[in-house]
Amino acid sequence: MAEKKNQHFVPRFYLKYFSHELNGKFLSIYNIPKEKYILKGGLQGQASKDYFYGRDLVIEDALGEIESETSKLFNLMLHTHTTPSYGSEAHYTLLAFVLTLSSRTEQTGDMINETVDKLMKIILRDDETFKEHLNYVKIGYEHPTLMSLKATAENLQVLQDLRFKFIVNTTDTPFITSDHPVIKYNQFYERLNKIGGHTGFASKGLQIFFPMLPDLYMVFYDSDVYGIGSRKEEVISVSDEKDIEFLNLLQFTNAHKNIYFNEKFTLKDLESLKSKGVGFRKKSLTNVVEYKSANNDLASLLHTYSNDTKIGLKLTFVKELRKAKKYELGDSVVHYRNKELVDMVKEEKGRYF
């Protein structure tokens, strides 16, 4: 059991692809809160904590199985220069890995606990037993990512309609990654400038960006809203430096504490990224908004939502479709990407959970 004490929330096999000369031992690190640059840092202890998922190793072992299958797929893609087709077993392996990775990180855990803390302090603020102590405590779970991993497992089917494509970086500037590398974005809602969070699993316009390698990104997207490259292209070569800059900016903005990169990402690249990215960093991960009842002083509605990443994203290979530009939001608060799929998953959850 001791050998699994240090549990990675970003897998080591994945970080190795961003190591210096692919040696699997060292990579460059920039810690954003401390503004600390490490040219050659050890990979071993990165993105990990002791017993992060618990001492019983149930979740750690389950995640290890997902990593094992995904690692084989990464190696296959590298050596054969092939990509999975939509609906294939490899497609669902990558989807499960990416969404699980998004749900298992320290940042996701902090987001859950931030929400719990804010909610409970509103609920308990008038309670005589607790109100004097609330400013001195943080309320949350010991292992909050167990909540997000459970939610992902139960709702993974909702994302099976997302199409995906691969972006090949042909510039001299490599892609970087981070301690929270999966970015959920929504250019559709960013254009409409609507309040609230719009990167839920079932949201219309959802995009998911993931750097697989220093020269390869995977993008899942709502194909009713966006076109990526030409219709028949599954792999898109990108030579525009601004595209690479935007994708790296997503990593910097979305990172919890650290970004990681290989020896080809220069100090000049880092300084440029810092100057552009600092202003987009989130001051808090979630919002809790209280709406007071007009008829009952003791009643209120609490609205919680995540603070979405927003950087004014513009990519030359992504176009918003004409029908999406004409789409009317109306008075509806929720706009599902695929209502039938959502209803099917809800029915299945009611049956088994």
Written account of the structure:
- This protein has 353 residues and is of the alpha+beta class.
- It has one domain.
- The protein has ten helices and 15 strands.
- It has a five-stranded mixed beta sheet with strand order 7-8-9-5-11, with helices on one face. It has a four-stranded antiparallel beta sheet with strand order 3-2-12-6, covered by helices on one side.
- β8 and β9 form a beta hairpin.
- α2 crosses α3 and α4 crosses α5.
- The longest helix has 23 residues.
- It is globular, with a radius of gyration of 21 Å.
- The relative contact order is 0.14.
- The mean pLDDT is 94.
Query: Could you estimate the helical fraction of the residues in percent?
Result: 25-40%
User: What is the approximate shape?
Assistant: globular
Our estimate of the beta-strand percent is 15-25%
Pairing-aware structural class of the strands and helices?
alpha+beta
The topology string of helices and strands comes to: EHEEEHHHHEEEHEEEEHEHEEEHH
Oligomer: single chain
In whole angstroms, the N-to-C terminal distance is 31 Å
* pLDDT < 50 stretches: none
Number of strands: 15
Number of domains: 1
Overall pLDDT metric:
94
Q: Which value, in Å, is the CA radius of gyration?
A: 21 Å
Biggest beta sheet attributes:
5 strands, mixed
Total helical segments = 10
Which strand order does the major sheet show?
7-8-9-5-11
